[in-house]
Amino acid sequence: MRLKGLVTNVLTPMDNQGHPDNDGIHALVDYLVSAGIGGLWVLGSAGEDVHLSAPDKAEVIHSFLAAGQGRVPMVMGLGTGTFHDYMILCDNIETDKVDTFHFLPYDQKIGDQSLVRYVEKLADALPCPLWLYHNPKRGRGFTLETVRTLKQHPNIIGIKVGGYSLTDLTRMMMLEDDKFQVAGAGGGQLFQMLSLGAQVHMTSDSNCFPEVFLELISLFQQGKKEEALALQYDIIRFLSRIPHTDNGEYAAEEKYIVTLRGVRINEYVNPAYRCLTNDEKQTIQMVLQEQGFSWA
């Protein structure tokens, strides 16, 4: 299964205790699918995966599968845990309905050779194909050489490269072929990745503004490169004006923006994070209105 287009690093709607909200998940999936996104990256950093229990992760996967009904591909996160935790997770979900998993290693001290052995063992055991997730701000990053080795495994089909270094993105893109995909990430990197030949791009900002990123892709594909670049610059300037909490992830901000769009999800986040203050909400709403979003 090859991904294509805009893939949303999807939020995890929650109740006031920080557990999954099934109704909210269904509402969010319907909204994103209707917007025309090309897939969902579930239980990534934007999905607050590191702060969810094993039972909650299984429930999230079950809810997204039920909500999606096969309309778009979904890449399900294995999250934090041990090899045996991942096997238990597989026992508790409908793996026959899962398109693929993604895996971010969290052991910062493990060496490259040990990392390769571990990921290959995991790929051997999983019932579905595996995407690698390179996010050195969150976990243990993959070096170019480890990816070059791991891409040879028949059950490893791609890597998402966190958008912190255009040099890393460029080098990783050189590893793409017809059996292994490379996806960039981040709202400020879409034009750059399209210019490098990327067929898929991932960003959590598309929870809030899917039409903006889809417009950029459309302009690029039509050969309107100058217009696409101008829109990318506008996106970077606009996103920089949105105030952020110290949560470390933008789940609270993005959930609030999604509610402004009329999507029926709660603003609640996991217990390690905080929701927005009224002053923060007013500032975000003002920025959105000044940007011309009528729904704000």
Largest sheet: 8 strands, parallel, barrel
Strand content: 5-15%
Alpha-carbon Rg, integer: 18 Å
Return the average pLDDT rounded to an integer: 95
Along the chain, the helix and strand elements come as EHEHEHEHEHEHEHEHHHH
Q: Helical element count?
A: 11
Domains, number: 1
What structural class do you assign from the helix and strand content? alpha/beta
Q: Please give the number of β-strands.
A: 8
Which CATH architecture?
A: Alpha-Beta Barrel
Name the assembly state: single chain
User: Termini distance?
Assistant: 37 Å
Shape: globular
CATH superfamily: Aldolase class I
CATH topology: TIM Barrel
**What is the CATH domain class?**
Alpha Beta
Helix content: 40-55%
Stretches where pLDDT is under 50 for at least 5 consecutive residues are none
Strand order of the largest sheet: 1-2-3-4-5-6-7-8
Structure report:
The chain is an alpha/beta fold and about 300 residues long. The protein has one domain: Alpha-Beta Barrel (TIM Barrel), CATH 3.20.20. The protein is built from eleven helices and eight strands. The protein has helices at about 20-35, 55-70, 85-90, 110-125, 145-150, 165-175, 190-195, 210-220, 225-240, 250-260, 280-290, and strands at about 5-10, 40, 75, 100-105, 130-135, 155-160, 180-185, 200-205. Helix 1 packs across helix 2 (about 55-70) and helix 8 packs antiparallel against helix 9 (about 225-240).
